[in-house]
TrEMBL record:
Keywords: Isomerase. InterPro entries: ClpP/crotonase-like_dom_sf, Enoyl-CoA_hydra/iso. One of its GO terms (cellular component) is mitochondrion. This is Enoyl-CoA delta isomerase. The keyword Isomerase applies.
Amino acid sequence: MYRYLQIERKGAYAIVRICKEPVNSMNLDLWSELDKCLYEIEQDVDIKGLVLASGLKRSIFTAGNDLKELYAKATSKTRFTDFWRAQTHFLAHLNRTSLVTVAAIKGACPAGGCITALGCDYRIMTEKGYIGLNEVLIGLPVPKLWCKQMERLIGARHAQTALMTGKMFKPKDALAVGLVNQVVPEENLLATAEAVVAKWVQIPSFGVATTKKFLKEELAQELDDFCEEEATETWQILSSPKIIGLMEKYLKGLSKPSKAKM
């Protein structure tokens, strides 16, 4: 049913694994599948929680957005707008879903992967890896509401420095500033995530879901409301000669192991 996702139902919660080789790069199809999958799971009255994890053998949660969706010469305004809508609608949906959501972050988690994890209610990370919003390193601005979401989690002082420098937090540093909630050995990651969500879904769901709405619905609505304007503004940036040049330079360097996607 899904090309890039695997769903495992385990009583009151489900595990969704992202399985898009080689690095779970997030394109139009993957964002769309994530949204569709979330709607499907919400229809199951027995499921109250969700663990979002990587199904890759490599230590990568997701390397972020597929640069083919951002490189103006490789796409079109129409395609990019569809991509931006799919991405934004899922992120809004993730923030407002009544399900309890836990991100099981294995290894690398930059940019699009990071904002997906931040949209979850709880984040558990392996002892090795990194997480952050690093768009500025390839000359792009961090989306406005992505900035807001990070700022809400770790505070203005930490967020400002991290966002303006493209800082990648190591797991212990991410834990120290509140970007993640736990750091565990990789072999314990999924079991820990399942234990958290299994305990959480035992709490009466109405109170949890309504409180979550108070906390996150405003941001979800802002994501929806700003989507079309942001898509237009972002395309103008991506299609400018300066950014095209920076993207070309960045793409040429992607063969280096240290490079990460947006």
